[in-house]
Amino acid sequence: YPGSFPPIPPRVPIPKSLNPSRGKRESSVRAKSKGQLDFGSESIDLRFLEVLSNMSQTRCIGDAILWLLRNHILDGAVSLAELKNNIDAILEEQGPGALGNEANRTSVRGIDVARVINRMRMANFHFVSAD
Questions:
Q1: Which residues have C-beta within 8 Å of that of residue 1, sequence separation ≥ 6?
Q2: Could you give the CA distance from residue 29 to residue 88 in angstroms, rounded to a whole number?
Q3: Is 68 left (phi over 0), alpha (psi -120 to 50) or beta?
């Protein structure tokens, strides 16, 4: 349409900006409550993600982000939308246990993982043009 805005290019998270380390620990990811996730030295407020109903979902989201980093899926070339699809596929095929050590996990949606990455203050993004 004439005068309309151009499409928004996909946001791609830069993996080096998502640092899960804290102090001497290589990775420190933990759910403090259903509304708060500590990822490295950052505390992420999730109270406004209304779909989270318990702390194990918050833990699963933290594990999913760590899994994306460790498996080099979050590699600086994959958009948030593609990351969402990857998480959904893994959770559908293997269940939430594929993302961490504990078998007692509630599943989450890939869109919720992408929302949390979007809320991380430490996260930097670049945009991929459609050209």
A1: none
A2: 20
A3: alpha
Tell me the per-residue pLDDT of 63-106, one tens digit each, with 9 for 90 and over.
Answer: 889 999 999 999 999 999 999 999 899 888 988 788 775 555 67
- pLDDT given at position 118: 92
> Tokens for 37?
């996730």
Number of CB atoms found within 10 A of residue 94's CB: 10
First to last CA, the chain: 19
Predicted local confidence at residue 89, as pLDDT:
92
Locate 22 and state its tokens.
């804290």
**Dist. CA 107–CA 109, nearest whole Å:** 7
Please spell the DSSP secondary structure of 27-45, one letter per residue: --EEEEETTEEEETTEEEE
Q: What is the pLDDT of residues 9-67, one digit of tens each?
A: 899 999 999 999 998 999 999 999 999 999 999 999 998 888 888 888 898 899 889 99
3-state secondary structure of 116: helix
124 phi and psi angles, rounded to 5 deg? -110, 150
